[in-house]
Specification:
Elements lengths: L2 H25 E9 L18 H9 L13 H8 L4 E6 L4 E6 L2 H5 L7 E11 L30 H5 L4 H5 L8 E6 L15 E7 L14 H10 L1 E2 L3 E2 L6 E6 L9 H15 L4 E4 L24 H8 L6 E5 L21 E6 L23 E4 L3 E4 L5 E4 L2 H18 L5 H11 L17 H4 L3
Parallel strand pairs: 5-9, 5-10, 6-9, 10-11, 11-12, 12-13
Antiparallel strand pairs: 1-3, 1-4, 2-3, 7-8, 14-15
């Protein structure tokens, strides 16, 4: 082969690989988080909060004497227009953090956004082959919950032990079952909650999906949310009664089950800000992160200070918006990571670990402390196992702090109903003080197992 032939062959292969790379790039999806400098040009003002907050949200702030401030103002619509004019999609916004999450297939085009004068910084949080997305499909479900011997001897049925472990039964007997309190459940999907007859007597105010391209039907997605919801909202006496059967519920999907990426922090932030805007009182979130598919964006233990991760910064703001946030600690206790996840490291929230029926911590339950030395988890509840209803309509027993979290969140709603004059920060501290290790906390049990009957008499 002569030199000319080699040049032709080399040119061919260079062209081939270049075309392959372009084809691959055409199939890639990228997301970047833009942090904006300010909110100039916004038509919204603090003197007219009814334009961006519901009456219920405004009233919640008023009762707790909490200000509406510049973080509550929506992201500047003028900035949104200029970003979209660059040919990218905006898939999430956070007014509290003044960030937008943009998506596109041309990485170079996205990166030109950094030159906009109102973009303070940008960070790549996601990149994946578009073909990796999978559509969800509903599963079959049964019409009746299966009755077992354990459900025939007590009003709470299979939920008896998990409410009694936190001494919530007496609070219910005094008439505090969550009525008039609104709980937002943040999760990955609520498979068949709209179809399973056992969920038919729930008070569901509304639903919303914050995952791009997920559509509005949160009931066809995963059933993790179905299970967490059931620990609070189930209301079938003699079969299964949860910890807040009379509360009102918003069901918010913000978890992408196909991938694990930092973009889910943006979905989560958008979901909690929505929950705030519609007047939610309590948030139950059985979600947590530290390791992402793109290892460059994963968190280190040193990041767990309640303010480094966007999701944790957002969670740390909730109590000062008047909301009690309850989050699962995580299930890494027997894994190399061992520690709690974000946003379980947030300030002024209730982080929940899992115990077994003998009141011993579950081995998988993630431990503290936070990187800045705060006690975590805050309290413990049944999670090894917990009774739940699956997306197939079966009563089952599941392990995880994911289920300990809503058990506590439901009781928080009942406690707040009994103490309507308390602020979110006061409710959080009341729950901690009621726990059996409050004076000798550690980083396995935190402040211990809460006593909600005792808390309700403080």
């Amino acid at each position: 082969m002569n030199r000319m032939d080699l040049k032709i062959l080399l040119a061919f292969w260079l062209s081939f690989f270049a075309n392959m790379a372009m084809a691959q790039n055409d199939e890639m999806v990228y997301m970047y988080r833009l942090t904006l400098t300010d909110k100039h040009g916004t038509p919204y003002t603090l003197t007219a909060p009814e334009r961006f907050l519901s009456w219920k949200a405004i009233e919640r702030r008023r009762k707790q004497q909490l200000p509406i401030d510049s973080t509550d103002l929506p992201v500047s619509p003028k900035y949104i227009e200029r970003i979209e004019a660059k040919g990218v999609d905006i898939v999430a916004k956070s007014k509290w953090n003044n960030t937008v999450l943009v998506r596109g297939r041309d990485m170079k085009k996205i990166e030109t956004l950094s030159s906009l004068p109102f973009v303070a910084s940008m960070k790549k949080v996601f990149g994946i082959d578009a073909g990796a997305y999978r559509q969800s499909r509903r599963v079959e479900y049964q019409e009746q919950l299966a009755l077992t011997d354990t459900t025939l001897h007590d009003y709470y049925g299979v939920g008896q032990k998990q409410i009694e472990a936190v001494n919530g039964r007496r609070l219910h007997e005094r008439g505090f079952t969550g009525k008039g309190v609104t709980i937002a459940v943040l999760d990955a999907g609520f498979m068949n909650v709209d179809k399973i007859p056992a969920f038919g007597n729930l008070s569901i105010i509304g639903t919303r999906n914050f995952v791009p391209d997920g559509g509005e039907d949160i009931y066809k997605e995963m059933d993790h949310g179905t299970k967490t919801l059931s620990t609070m909202a189930m209301n079938r006496p003699g079969v299964f009664v949860g910890t807040a059967p009379d509360a009102d519920y918003w069901l918010l999907r913000c978890e992408e089950h196909n991938f694990e990426s930092s973009a889910e922090e943006d979905y989560w932030a958008a979901a909690v800000e929505f929950a705030d805007s519609v007047g939610v009182d309590v948030i139950s979130s059985s979600l947590g992160y530290h390791e992402f598919d793109d290892g460059a964006t994963s968190y280190k233990y040193a990041d767990q200070d309640g303010k480094t991760a966007l999701i944790s910064r957002t969670a740390s703001m909730l109590a000062r918006k008047g909301i009690v946030h309850v989050n699962s600690a995580g299930n890494d206790g027997v894994r190399p990571w061992k520690k709690i996840n974000v946003p379980a490291d947030a300030h002024d929230i209730i982080t929940v670990g899992a115990i077994s029926p003998d009141s011993i911590n579950a081995g998988f339950s993630s431990v503290g402390p936070t990187a800045d030395g705060r006690v975590k988890p805050d309290v413990m509840a049944y999670g090894c196992p917990s009774s739940v209803v699956s997306g197939r309509g079966y009563l089952s027993r599941e392990n995880g702090t994911s289920f300990a979290c809503p058990i506590v969140a439901g009781m928080v709603a009942c406690l707040w109903q009994s103490m309507p004059g308390k602020t979110a920060l006061e409710i959080i501290e009341t729950v901690r003080k009621s726990a059996d290790r409050y004076h000798t906390p550690d980083n396995i049990f935190g402040y211990g197992i809460p006593d909600f009957d005792n808390a309700g008499t403080q």
